[in-house]
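User: Could you walk me through two proteins back to back? I'd like the raw sequence and the structure tokens for each, with a short line separating them so I can tell where one ends and the next begins.

Assistant: Of course. Protein one, sequence then structure:
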Amino acid sequence: MMSGTSYRPKPGPEVAEIEQLSRKLHGSVTGADDFTFHSLAEHVEEVRGLLGEGDSHWKAETIDIIIHALVLLNRHRVTEAEIDELFVKRADRFKEKIAASLKEQPRG
């Protein structure tokens, strides 16, 4: 990644293939969603623990979270264009909320 550019996760053919395999394995969209939600929660806890231990494997587990999120979006027919648009909107919202919180902090 070049300096000054921003990265946005893209749901490429790998994501579509994972989604299809997951749906086949779990028998339905609902079953695949249940697995995804469970796995997301496990990965979040794993990342928290690995970071706390100073284990660099947290990076790989964080990528797994991104993959799960992209698979979920793909499963529910969210387009790449919509993902891009939402990513920008949500990133802007994060920045606004953080900036507002910083303004509210007492200066010391």
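----
Protein two, same layout:
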Amino acid sequence: MASIVCPSCKRNTSLLDSNYNDTFQCENCGEILRVRIKDNRVTNVRTHNIDLEIPEGLPEDLSKILNESVACYESGSFAASVVMAGLFIEGALKKTNVGGKQLVEMIQNAKDEKIISNLGFHVATASRLLRNIGAHFSDELTKITDSDARLTLEMARKLAVDILESGALRTKI
């Protein structure tokens, strides 16, 4: 049995499941929490502000980066969320072993190799451009909104689904 501490009311709650990765409503304050427990060890508890389904089958390191991007979003760090989502996309493409020194080349190669769909290609291109805003300080960086970050997270999720459906991650890791 694992015990979690609600970030809102700071009270302990015990969960019976030793492996849990879902939302949970705090029985003390009613706050919706995002909870992750693996092998009876609590690895993540945070308030739940976005409903983004992390695709099953991602390598653990990529899943962690995408979860960190969501955590940045949920804490109000929208620029950080966009940058982390971009890192996730770059990492996912690198793990498929598509060629290319730059992300723009990897995206094109992934489309050509049918690792991502035509829609995925446009999503990846848009996401890359949004991420570029976060590569260096600029006034644009300070203007990234929750909507921008949410869109980037949804784009990262779409690319993850494309890559998983192509089988490229399972066969080339």
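Helices lie at 60-74, 78-95, 103-112, 118-133, 139-142, 146-166, 168-172.

Let me know if you want the two compared in more detail.
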